[in-house]
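S.,

Sequence below, as promised.
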Amino acid sequence: MKHLGFKLAAIFVILVLLAAGTAAWAAESGEKWHLLISVHNLDSEFWAQEAAGAVLFAESRPDVEYTIQPSNGDDNTLLQGLKDFIAQHGKRSIAVFDPSSAANTVNIADICEEAGVYYSLTWHLAEGLRPEDYKYFVGLFSPDDEVSGYKTASHLLEAIGKKGNVVYLHGKIGEDSAARRYQGMKRALSECPDVKLVDYQVADWDQEKAMAITETWLATKGPIDGIIAANDTMALGAIEALKKAELNGKVPVTGTDGIQAAFDAIKGGDMLATIANDGYLLFGYAAAYAYAAATGQPHEKGAFYTNAVFVTKDNVEQVIADYIKGKPTFDFSDLKFPILSKREIK
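The prediction came back faster than expected:
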């Protein structure tokens, strides 16, 4: 997914974390575990939050060192980085990935299984790939995108009195998150027969595309009562178009992911709601599960939906305090805490 709005202060925090990762976090005695943190890049607010979550876990254990490896969304870069990491650290390696693609998860699994390295995946999974079928594949972790799509859409439909015309900004075609959020939105619409979906367009998680699409809607689709976006970045693009038409705050907009710009828009009255997918929790506990497996601690195995935070004007100040101005704290020994439900992978 594409996320914008990453601030210089956050970049500074990540640089500090990277420097800390090279320090000796191991206990005075005993071998260290080496945690590979693989994310798309650190320029995105959400992916940087994921990396920081895994660092939070590493800092909670005296026998864990960490390395952050951005893949820049490239399959080969991710795989080569993984091979080099294992070549350096061998079976003292553990790893957590936000994969560059669903297809690449097969290659990740093959490399880790052959090397005997415990690993967790987030978000993406190739069809038919199940943790239960592998020795070292600990789990797949992600929020439930269908629930996210349903909750944000339902909240907007309530706000417009369950009647009127709405439009939908779709994510990238072919990605699980986009498809599931769309299905959640459709479920919410099915419960409101007096609401008409007058159009939906694919904006590829992109703010500028979403702004251009919304400008066209405002010029051609007549009165629009609400805009549902599959992520915050596209929601912000829609808000920019509404501002040009002096309709911001009058036409409710929802998103998903939980980036700072979305929280600011909710505070300012330009955005109705979002789902904060909590990258800290997602990657922190994905790393905790891999560590538990490697060290022989009790843990579940499988695909899991993780908890997320529904953000509106009622709780946005607290969310900003917890996730933007500060960092959340977790008890990583409580492996049940992040799990919303178990997910069936066929």
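The first helix runs from residue 8 to 21.

Coffee later?
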